[in-house]
Amino acid sequence: MRDKGVIDAPPTSADDPEVVSWFHWIWVGPLACMLRLWLATLRFRCNVDRFEDSAGPVVLLLWHDKLFVSSWIANRYFSRPVTALISTSKDGAWLVAFFRFMGIAAVRGSSNRRGVAALITLTRAMRAGHHAGITPDGPKGPALEFKPGAVALARLARSPFVIMGIRYHACWRMRSWDRFAMPLPFSKVDVTLLAEPAPSETEDDARIVQRLQMRLNETSTDRA
């Protein structure tokens, strides 16, 4: 079930996700190799708190601005495959292409396009043993604002969460809605994996969202 997540044909309807055209793969591969070399220079330090990968699939949560290092962390610290939720936009298509080279599967969708279909596909992936990776403030923000889709997925899959807190000690930031960050080569990156329980039947979704947003902010604020 490890779908590579890239289709080399153009979308046929308004709801179909954007894809990377076949002729762009001539340079997508070399670019991905360069980015992998970049990631290899970073000095990662990981703090794992109450998390056991073999216990079962989880919903992985991280802010959208920290996606640059997410595939490296997934490959390094998780034994289970990870299927990521990626937007249907052109930017999402390039991210899927990069994730393909990093061994991460993708499901295309967002709250605005293909949301229900993506939720169903992610639930099936989790039942097959995959972790699900979600940026709860994506695909277009507001930045650092937790949307409830991840909670709905956790309820459907009956799975807990793992906060993927990421702190950069030095980085460049883009002028995008999320101020997408790229850590400087050879800089330090702190990673915190924090387990959070699955949603209970009695806990309100709004309270869960508030708690998870607080945990993400606590573990993801960059070093000065």
How would you characterize the overall build of this protein?
The chain starts with 24 loop residues before the first helix and ends with a helix. Helix 4 packs parallel to helix 5. The strands form 2 sheets. Strands 1-9-6-2-5-3-4 form a 7-stranded mixed β-sheet, with helices on both faces. With 224 residues, the protein is an alpha/beta fold. The radius of gyration is 17 Å and the shape is globular. It has one domain. The longest helix is centred in the N-terminal third of the chain and has 17 residues.
Overall shape: globular
Share of helical residues: 25-40%
Question: Which sequence of strands runs across the widest sheet?
Answer: 1-9-6-2-5-3-4
Main pleated sheet: 7 strands, mixed
SSE order, as H and E? HEEHEHEHEHEEEEH
**Alpha-beta classification:** alpha/beta
Task: Round the mean pLDDT to the nearest integer and report it.
Answer: 85
Number of domains: 1
How many DSSP helices? 6
